[in-house]
Amino acid sequence: MDAKAYARSDPALRLSGPEQVGATVIRLMAGAGRRVSQDLPAKALDNLLVRLGARRFENDPNDPPWCDEGGPSWIIHGDPAGLIGGFLSLWIQALHPLVLAGVMEHSGFEDDPLGRLQRTGGFVGTVTFAPGSEAQEAIDLVNRIHPRIVGNAPDGRPYAAQDPDAVDWVHCALLLGMARCWLRYGNKPDPALLDGYVAEQSRVAIELGDPTPPMTWAELLDHIEAHRPNLVVNAQTRFMDRWLWSPTFKGSTRLVLPAYQAAHSAALAAAPAWAHDLYGNRRFLPARFAGGAIAVSASALFARVA
Fold this sequence. Notes:
Order of helices and strands: HHHHHHHHEEHHHHHHH
Structural class: mainly alpha
Radius of gyration: 18 Å
Number of helices: 15
Shape: globular
Largest sheet: 2 strands, antiparallel
Helix content: 55-70%
Number of domains: 1
Strand order of the largest sheet: 1-2
């Protein structure tokens, strides 16, 4: 898929005016930072993620990862923009009231926000980079937990984490958020990789109970469109929107809040227009984008001091 085909399939990502300038500045400054510091920002980010509990995976020729080494998933999930993409994915996922009800009632995100982010990021990293047997173990663990995540949403409708519709929404929203941030902030993003990315990630969705996940980028957008009539903003969504902007970090972890909010701002700047329209906060986008652009660019230049 070339850039023009991508723009036709998802015109909301086409930038103009201040947003185009901001995205260009991020890419130029990030590239300059990588060249000046001999890629030390990426190394510093890697070390930071390891200190936060992320793992480094060793290659095992007898137990290859589910996603091809050096393939689309490795490129997109391995880019520092993937961290920002994770924030966007969570923000989009929260628009599904049944999915969000399960998170609100069965997740410890309020008490341990960093732990929740680490576990989510750890799962994505494992099914992408880890030996295949470890990826299967991660899937099996989720499949043992999901049967217990059942209940009723505030509107009275029942929810279940194993519902194929819920699994499909979470899967598609994850890929949408990751891909959009990579396309906007990533290192030399190439829309031609999107079809392969969606195809590689389909195995994860199938293993989690989605019998017909998208196999191409166009199919992913079709799935998103099919879900949109079910998306709403209710009291739980409003709470999650506020919480995602200012999580309840405790103790010394509160020091990371400014950096977190900068990344969150940049993430929302890459969100599709329909998501902003649902949340009703698109009017704040220019200020959030400006703050995120400055912070992300500065991080790319100065992360070597970490």
